[in-house]
């Protein structure tokens, strides 16, 4: 039978097989044994190339009798060549389990490694192999070696692939769920991730749409910014769902949905009682009252079912929208300043206008009050302190308090001041600069200003 051999075999010239075959106590008498061993080196060392060879031997005894025999073998000193590809030469994968495609010449076995150091056991050669990549996202390398029948082992062949098992981020931050929209709606949010491919924004009718219409798609990442602008002017009023899908190059995807309503006719609020453009008085704060009513232009929600929210811009404590309620009047006690009151209505379907929509009622006005000092007289033994209200917001507060002898008792500054509306309010605790309570009597205050100065008397009674 044919056999394979490499160039590493040793050479032994004529000799016996090392066994006392005829029992005469000798092992080195070829003439008596008739058994011989010969080894002949077939390799590139003696000029023999890889090929199939036939080795023949003939034996002749002293009587002239002869016999011959031969054996065929193949000399193979060439290591297998080969190649490997992961997932048909893909650049990315989102799974640790991959398919290896293999090719090799004269290979009978193969083995694999993820680090070219620790190798799997030898197994029969095949053109495909399922393999598990090392853990963790990033670039992964798989190595393979091939072995042929003669035992020659190839160099390590390798291929790379990027493992990305982390899905991208997809979120819609505006418009919020369960709100009403109309006109050109700006959709904001985030679509981003490693090896980002694209995002798509779609809408469908109802809360569980059976079909989707694309609004836009893009290959650019977006982080807390505009994703798309949705034209709702061509849609009928009703319930809709927005869907954002983000994909990366490895095939990972993320998706989010927001259900809302398209309402091109939100309910309307109308102010029926509100202040004039300028409100004045001779008190520290003036009462300002607003009264309103609502209506549904579509006539679906009865007036008594409407709810409202309001805000007062220009006042730090009131500039955020209130909670929704059925009340239709609101009164504020306001110091000097410029203000804007806004109120809007919401129907039973949850529809309400945007802040700058004409259906949101608003009134802008100015409260103009003189500088007021109160209480005057002041009774500190009853826990009272002196309040100086309606100081200009734009001016630094400086108030000087003297006794009747002209001695400076106290200087009030920004540390004794609070902002109320668009004016400042200072307080005097009836103590001097050393923190001691002042005596009863008359004190003179002086308020310098860029445009006007004010002076007057304060009575402290104990």
UniProtKB/TrEMBL annotation:
Taxonomic superkingdom: Bacteria
Annotated spans, Disordered: 1-20
Gene3D superfamilies: 2.60.40.4070, Immunoglobulins (2.60.40.10)
Protein name: T9SS type A sorting domain-containing protein
Organism per entry: Aerophobetes bacterium
């Amino acid at each position: 039978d044919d056999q394979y051999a490499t160039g590493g075999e040793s050479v032994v010239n004529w000799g016996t097989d090392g066994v006392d075959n005829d029992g005469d106590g000798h092992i080195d008498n070829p003439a008596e044994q008739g058994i011989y061993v010969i080894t002949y080196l077939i390799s590139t060392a003696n000029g023999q190339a890889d090929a199939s060879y036939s080795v023949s031997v003939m034996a002749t005894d002293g009587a002239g009798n002869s016999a011959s025999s031969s054996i065929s073998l193949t000399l193979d000193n060439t290591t297998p060549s080969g190649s490997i590809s992961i997932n048909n030469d893909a650049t990315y994968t989102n799974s640790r389990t991959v398919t290896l495609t293999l090719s090799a010449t004269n290979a009978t076995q193969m083995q694999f490694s993820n680090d070219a150091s620790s190798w799997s056991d030898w197994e029969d050669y095949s053109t495909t192999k399922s393999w598990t990549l090392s853990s963790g996202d990033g670039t992964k390398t798989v190595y393979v070696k091939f072995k042929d029948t003669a035992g020659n082992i190839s160099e390590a062949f390798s291929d790379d692939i990027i493992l990305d098992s982390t899905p991208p981020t997809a979120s819609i931050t505006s418009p919020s769920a369960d709100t009403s929209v109309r006109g050109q709606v700006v959709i904001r949010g985030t679509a981003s991730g490693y090896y980002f491919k694209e995002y798509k924004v779609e809408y469908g009718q109802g809360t569980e749409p059976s079909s989707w219409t694309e609004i836009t798609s893009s290959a650019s990442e977006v982080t807390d910014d505009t994703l798309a602008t949705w034209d709702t002017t061509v849609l009928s009023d009703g319930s809709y769902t927005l869907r954002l899908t983000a994909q990366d190059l490895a095939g990972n995807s993320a998706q989010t949905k927001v259900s809302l309503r398209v309402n091109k006719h939100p309910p309307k609020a109308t102010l029926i009682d509100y202040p004039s453009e300028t409100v004045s008085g001779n008190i520290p704060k003036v009462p300002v009252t607003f009264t309103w009513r609502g209506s549904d232009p579509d006539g679906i929600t009865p007036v008594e079912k409407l709810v409202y929210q309001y805000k007062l811009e220009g006042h730090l404590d009131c500039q955020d929208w209130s909670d929704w309620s059925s009340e239709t009047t609101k009164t504020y006690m306001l110091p000097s300043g410029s203000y804007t009151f806004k109120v809007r209505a919401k129907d039973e379907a949850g529809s309400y206008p945007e802040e700058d929509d004409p259906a949101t009622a608003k009134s802008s006005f100015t409260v103009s009050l003189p500088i007021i000092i109160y209480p005057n007289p002041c009774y500190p033994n009853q826990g009272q302190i002196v309040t100086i209200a309606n100081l200009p917001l734009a001016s630094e507060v400086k108030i000087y308090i003297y006794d009747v002898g002209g001695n400076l008792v106290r200087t009030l500054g920004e540390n004794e001041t609070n902002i109320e509306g668009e004016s400042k309010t200072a307080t005097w605790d009836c103590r001097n600069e050393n923190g001691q309570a002042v005596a009863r009597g008359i004190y003179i205050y002086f308020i310098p200003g860029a445009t006007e100065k004010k002076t007057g008397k304060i009575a402290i009674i104990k």
